[in-house]
Amino acid sequence: MTTKQRAYLKGLAMTIEPIFQCGKSSVTPDFVKAVSEALEKRELIKISVLQNCADDPKEIGIMISERTRSELVQVIGKKIVLYKQAKNEKNRKIELPKAAKKQTI
User: Fold this and answer.
1) CA-CA distance, 26 to 56, in Å (whole number)?
2) Separation of alpha carbons 1 and 83, rounded Å
3) Domain count of the fold of the chain
4) Is residue 89 part of a domain?
5) When you count CB atoms within 10 A of the terminal residue's CB, does the N or C end of the chain come out lower?
6) What are 43-91's pLDDT values in tens digits?
7) pTM of full prediction above 0.90
8) DSSP assignment string, 25-90
9) CATH code, 77
10) In a domain, 10, yes or no
């Protein structure tokens, strides 16, 4: 993912509310499954890490992105933003900016 695409997704993420909360039990298989299903429907989601969660939000973000095969867009404070392009063409809502081609001299 390019920095331009990441910046675009960060801009979109500013307007959405967290749909999941990661608490004391941290990352469970059921939690990962629910996040994966939400990513297929929405493509871009925000997760809030609660105060009673002992794990680091950045580590949680990396763990969830690996298990859901998604992109970790950003972690700000206790908010995690994830992106994954929907497999189903009908569910695709986000059109990422094209990656710039490198020029050779």
Assistant:
1) 10
2) 10
3) 1
4) no
5) C
6) 999 999 999 988 899 999 999 999 999 999 999 999 999 999 888 777 6
7) no
8) T-S-HHHHHHHHHHHHHHSEEEEEEPTT--S-HHHHHHHHHHHHT-EEEEEETTEEEEE---SSGG
9) 3.30.110.60
10) yes
